[in-house]
Amino acid sequence: MAAMHLSDKLAYQAADGRSSRFHTNTEPSEFDEDRDREGEGSSEGGDGNGTSVVGFMPKIDELEILLEAYFVQVDGTLNKVSALREYVDDTEDYINIMLDDKQNQLLQMGILLSTATLVMSCAIAITGIFGMNITIPLYDASTEGVFWQVTGGIVGATAAIYLVALVCYKRSGVLQ
After folding, report:
1. pTM, two decimal places
2. What is the phi/psi pair of residue 44, to 5°?
3. DSSP-derived secondary structure letter, 46
4. Alpha carbons 20 and 28: distance in angstroms, whole number
5. What is the pLDDT of residue 73?
6. N- to C-terminal Cα separation, the chain
7. CA 152 – CA 126 distance, rounded (Å)
């Protein structure tokens, strides 16, 4: 953290040009580390080899405050991103629920149309039987009104079968 305090480092190096503990090729001695722990300011002392090393203790309080402000800002940004991610996840879940509901409605409509197609196919099959060239007692009767009776009976039976199918679907829970 002391190496990040560039203004004090530059001022110190410009003032006397001596080696400091900021240089990468000079490591602090055990004496300097003990002095740093005791909280001493700048002083001179020996490193055990007969050379004097100037001890420099930069003011890192401002740097700590600056770093703490950056960490608070990064933490706030992280919280905002986390909240945004939760919002996106909730929105995605909501959209999936809406899509599932629409898919269920389409499936129910498909069931209704398939049932209607089945019932209409049965009515068409019965009409086809009556249209064949076979002899049945219905053909021997008078033809007045018989066509409309048979047509009405087929349409009524088709509607009744369709309604019975819908009631069965409702009871079994296929349709809502």
Report:
1. 0.52
2. -110, 145
3. E
4. 9
5. 94
6. 68
7. 13
